[in-house]
Amino acid sequence: MKSIFTLTAALILGLGIALGGYLGGQGLVKSRLGDRSVSVKGLSEREVKADLALWALRFVATGNELAETQAQVKANATAVTNFLKSHGFSDDEIELQAPQVTDRLAQAYSSGPVESRFIIAQQIVLRSTDVDKVAAANKDTSELVEQGVVLSNEYGPVRPSYLFTGIAALKPEMIEEATKRAREAAETFAADSGSSLGGIRRAWQGQFEILPRDNTPGTQETEQVAKTVRVVSTIEYLLVD
C-alpha cells in the first residue's frame, strides 16, 4: 500500500514538473516573439572644404655669440614675415611668438664639448581663413631655403593644418538623413521577414568624424583641404506580426 502511494505521488510530481516546464517554455517563447527586434545602421556623409588654416613656421639659429645668434634669428623672422606678406597675408594673420633661448653651458646636466653655446628657436604662426592662399604659399617654401632659412621639423612636419569648423551647422540635417536611412533598412528587413516595423526600442547616435576625402596611405586629415564628414546612427526597431 505504501509503495502504491509512493508511486502515485511520484507520478503526480513528475506530471507537475513537466506541465510547469511546458507552460514556462511557452511563456518564454511568447515573450521572445513579442519582443522581436532588428538593429540597423544609417550612414550620412558630406564632402566639405576646410575653412581655417593654421601654419607654424619654426626656425632655429645656433652660435657661440649671443648677439650674432639673435641677429640670425631676427633675420629669419624678417624673411618669413616678408614671404607671407608677399603671398597676400596681412599683419592680423601673422603672429610672431616669443623666442626660446637655450644656453647649453648653463645646463646642469650637460657633458662633453659644446660646439654651439646658444640655441635660439622662434616661430611665426599664420592663421587664415583663405585656405587656398595658404596652400599656394606652402608650395613656394623653397623661396625661404634660397634665402638661407631652414624651417625646423622638430615638432612635426612643416606643413599647414587645414581645419573644418562648420560641423555644427551640418549636424541636424545629417542626423535626420542617417535616421531616415536606418529606417529604410529596417523596413526592408521587416518586409523580407514577413513582419511589420514597430516603434524604436533603442537608438545610438555615433560620433561625427572628419576624415580625409582622399584616403591615401600616410595622409592625415589635417593635411587635406577637401574632407568628408561622416556620422552613423544605430537604431533598434521592434518587429510586429
UniProtKB/TrEMBL annotation:
Annotated transmembrane regions: none
Record organism: Parvibaculum lavamentivorans (strain DS-1 / DSM 13023 / NCIMB 13966)
GO BP annotations listed: DNA damage response
Gene3D superfamilies: Protein of unknown function (DUF541), domain 1, Protein of unknown function (DUF541), domain 2
InterPro entries: 26kDa_periplasmic_antigen, SIMPL/DUF541, UCP029033
Protein name per UniProt: SIMPL domain-containing protein
A Pfam family: SIMPL
